[in-house]
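Forwarding these from the shared drive since the link keeps breaking.
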Amino acid sequence: MSRLLLLGAVVLFVAGGPRLARLLGALLLAMDLVAPGARPALKAAAVSEVRIGSGVGSLYRAEGPGCAGLVLVHGLSRQGQAHPSFQRMARALARAGFLVLAPDFPRLRAFQLAESDVALVVDAVKLLGRETPGPLGILGFSFGAGPAVLAAADPGIRERVALVGSFGGYWDLRRVIIFIATGWYEEDGEWRRARPEEYNRWKLLAALTPHVADPEERRRLEYLAELKLADPGADVGAHTSRLGVEGRRFLQLVESRELEQVAALMDALPLATKERFRRLSPASRIGEVRARLLVAHGAADSSIPYTESVRLARAAPALGTLVVFGGLAHVFPSESGWARWLGRLEDGGRLVGLLDDLLALCRR
């Protein structure tokens, strides 16, 4: 605990003395996120299950009226909103004074992106709006950031949404697919290469299977994806030999590590598939978002390149904050541990500043 307090004092010093009083809430929230066991917040948070249209979600509420409402959108994860780190974050935000609604997204839990995810976010915002008269925000994490931003552009809620956050998110699905397969990403017109997370290759295959036209080919690829997700080292040669032309093309797209080949395979996809990728990319509707946008990403992210968030921020009609963390790998601050934050004081200051901008929703 003493080290946590030292971290807090140093972060406050880095963030700037004149704003200490206002930043106290952001500091407490940062400590709650980085080291949930410390629990510096004063409020307890209760959770209850709620219905959201035909789906379900978890509503996190602290004692007293919430200052504002937040809808949280999880990423590609089998556990979804039941992921321990995701739940810890939801509780921390509730203890900070937010009314937090975390819907369950079955398609995202199946490693798939669909326009139905956007519709579910819209329904969740409408439900939360009936629960609180305060301002509303949407926070999307990793691949959940796409549906979050797209929902904020929906005419039915965009005037009601005051803030949307994209954390570890993306701008254009085509570029993300290229990165996952090859490690290549573009920064200010220059192509660079990083080492992508190898396991994401099989998440990508699972995500692409709904776009396979032939039902039998689709089933074969789904089965192959499940085998590799369960054991990336599994020998699937007997299964790949049964694939037809369409299935082989999708598998080749996922397995290839060459930029030119993957780009050519992407270009050769059916027009309907490429149009779906376009509609599921925030690039397609960012100009319709009225909310203030908070964007954060880790420079060392091996799942989605941070340049995707930079592009998103540059195109935002109302950018609040863009933060690129030097050491954060992907999304959850608590998974890095307090020691990493103590070792990177600038990242600690960036986190407090980002959370201060988020807490501004409560000061409206």
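-- next protein --
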Amino acid sequence: MVPGGAQLISINKSPGEMERLEELQQAAAACYALAVRSTAQYAIEIEPGQAEGFRRHLEALQERLEAAATVEEVQAVQSSFRGELRDYRDKAKNQIARLRKEVEVAGAWVENLASSVAANGADHEHQVKEQLSSLRTAAASDNLERIRSGIQAAATGILTSFEQMRESNQLVVAQLKDEIRALHQEIESERRALFTDRPTGVWNRQKMDLRIDDLLRQNQPFCLLLVCVRDLKRLESQRSPALIEQLLKGFLARFQGLLEADAMVGRWSEDQFAAILDIDAASAITISRKLVRELSANYTVQENGQSHGLKLQATAGVADPLAAGDAKTFRNKLAQLAAALAGA
């Protein structure tokens, strides 16, 4: 008993109940992490580059979820997860709408072209048949003058129909050439989208790897400069995806501005960016030191009309294929460099 006659109510759980609750909590966390991972794995790939970025973001969320130690951290993951799904849904809807519009426009164009060709063909056929009928009438006549005039009129009419058909065909060919040219441009645009990191607009890892393979195969000298944004994952857990996207674009604009115009820049991983440089290793190391100084700075980005000051800390390293000796060793050295920068 306690003063006032109130009774103490025990809030202690039996050891068995505590163990069951802990197991249930662990199972729920594991299922949630699996749900996030499954969402990434089974995302519909309307545009491969966008799906790749979506998977990277969800993989980062899964890691944050597995490392979460408080209710607030789990709730932050939930908010980010919902935002990622909403953003991907909206982009997918826009892409599907664009594809439908393109199909409708192409279908209408083909239909108009087919109708035009059919109409012109029918008109020419009718005219030629009339001229042939005139020839038959003239051929059946005994009047020489009538035969001559009939042949002359039919020849003139057939020649006119031929010229009209040729002009129509030239117009059709010109339209087809324009459509083929537009199709080539669309294919080139889609091909570039396949190798583009959509959030930042730079080349993705696949494109960078293909370029490195080409340079190694041709035995051309180059250096790979790798830059890691050390606190990017922390910022992603605190800020919206739209704000992070603007931040990275500002970072990359400064990154590219410090390199030669022909340097190829791409996204190597979630928080690492690479540049392929046509210079020797010593010069690349000098540039990497300058990049670390210039890129480790405050960045001002806008969101909903408000300015946000965010600070980034960069580390950098250089991989030289000449020093590695062969392609396999270079790839191993490159993987070691990426791991070292990530853990720095």
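The two ends are 59 Å apart (CA to CA). Residues 1-11 have pLDDT under 50 and may be disordered.

- D.
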